[in-house]
Amino acid sequence: MTVDAPKPTWLPAIRKADGPLYIAIADAIAADIAEGRLSGGARLPPQRALAAALGIDFTTVSRAYNEARHRGLVEGRVGQGTYVKARRTTGVQPATDGLVDMSMNLPPLFDDDALTARLWSGIGSLQNEHGLDLLMRYQAAGGALHNRAVGASWLQPRLGEIPPERVLICAGAQSALLAAISILAKPGDAIASEAIAYPGLRALSAHLGIEHCGIAIDQNGMIPEQLEALCKSKKLKALYCNPTLHNPTTSTLPLERRKAIIDVARHYGVAIIEDDAYGAIPLAAPPPLASLAPDLVYHIAGLAKCLSPALRIAYLVVPDRQSSVRVEGAIRATSGMAPPFNAAVATRWIEDGTANEVLRAIRQEVTMRQAMVSRLLPKDIIQTDQEGFHLWLRLPPPWTRGDFAGRLRASGISVVASDAFAIGPAPEAVRLGLGAARTHDELQRSLMTIADLLQQTPAASSLVV
């Protein structure tokens, strides 16, 4: 008399036509973890038992479990079997319980287990498409042509059709900025930007020995007349501009100002470097400068703010073939190339629609966090955009930026004072990042601490005894 083998406690929902069967099983493990059907610590069926239940070869199940282990989904325990890994619920701990480092301008974490599993699944599937070549071969300095073409498709909704040859892949926006500036200016030359500008540009200018001039801004961004006045008094090699959800003030240049700035730059022969770090986030924004003047603008579209800071991938769109050759040489000289693995991950996420889903999730989370800001912080001293995840806090007297940042630091909250951004005199203001908080509760308590401090005076809030 034969005894039927016990039915496995878990069976994957798969279709044999969905690519390699072992990948389909690993994908099913990821999906069931995300949906809660497999919880942390659950034991997967023995490999032979699952193979028998599915009517497939034992080695296929073995490869599937190995694939899941490589993705970090499961772990093998000697003599015990294969178990689902417990999910991590915390990352880097804040300095003080419930408070966060608001100096970091990160996209907010979204609460979507299925999308998280999809991100990791996309990374794991690269093995089948690329094999060992992706890990053991160099690529051209400007990136593989297919990755450049996919980058062009990602930018198409904002920039229109772009030949892949005009798109270069860089190791993050800072690398793209270095490559662009290095072909446009040399030591002793002058470039300009908003008077309150991205700190990475200030550091890069100082490192290269390039004079960095500031142009006055108002609530709508750079003032075109101030740019023209500077062009009349100084020969500028390049103009850096962060026109959409400006860092740190969150302003977005209106269309008429964009056109006016382009007219001034064209008249005085000044190349424009457009940092479009946040350009993908708004559902509707004025057209990028690169779409208005493609022959004049070097457009930098990083993925750190709209997809993943960990990728360190940015697309640099250049005006023409000649500038493409020059920029590719600069990339080769300064960074060699963007990491091919990271570029392949970005390509996979864009092609399979994951990138757009992440962007949707970020937008949704931003809406909830901005609602907390509207409820908890005084509106008259805040400059922000409902589609952005940072804000510019103009401090009421008698607060100074140093006192305010110091008091917050004593409470376990880190913010960035305006000195980090100012070219010239710094206003009494600080930037707050809304994305670093891991939960809404952490963000709420931090915003309440800030609101409470604003109700006090520097003297009354002093901790010195």
TrEMBL record:
CDD domains: AAT_like, WHTH_GntR
Keyword Protease (UniProt): no
Domain HTH gntR-type, first and last residues per copy: 19-87
Gene3D superfamilies hit by this protein: Type I PLP-dependent aspartate aminotransferase-like (Major domain), Winged helix-like DNA-binding domain superfamily/Winged helix DNA-binding domain
Stored Pfam families: Aminotran_1_2, GntR
InterPro entries, sorted: Aminotransferase_I/II_large, HTH_trans_reg/aminotransferase, PyrdxlP-dep_Trfase, PyrdxlP-dep_Trfase_major, Tscrpt_reg_HTH_GntR, WH-like_DNA-bd_sf, WH_DNA-bd_sf
Keyword terms: Aminotransferase, DNA-binding, Pyridoxal phosphate, Transcription, Transcription regulation, Transferase
Keyword Nucleotide-binding: no
Molecular function as annotated in GO: DNA binding; DNA-binding transcription factor activity; pyridoxal phosphate binding; transaminase activity
Annotated family: In the C-terminal section; belongs to the class-I pyridoxal-phosphate-dependent aminotransferase family.
The protein's name in its UniProt record: PLP-dependent aminotransferase family protein
Organism: Ensifer oleiphilus
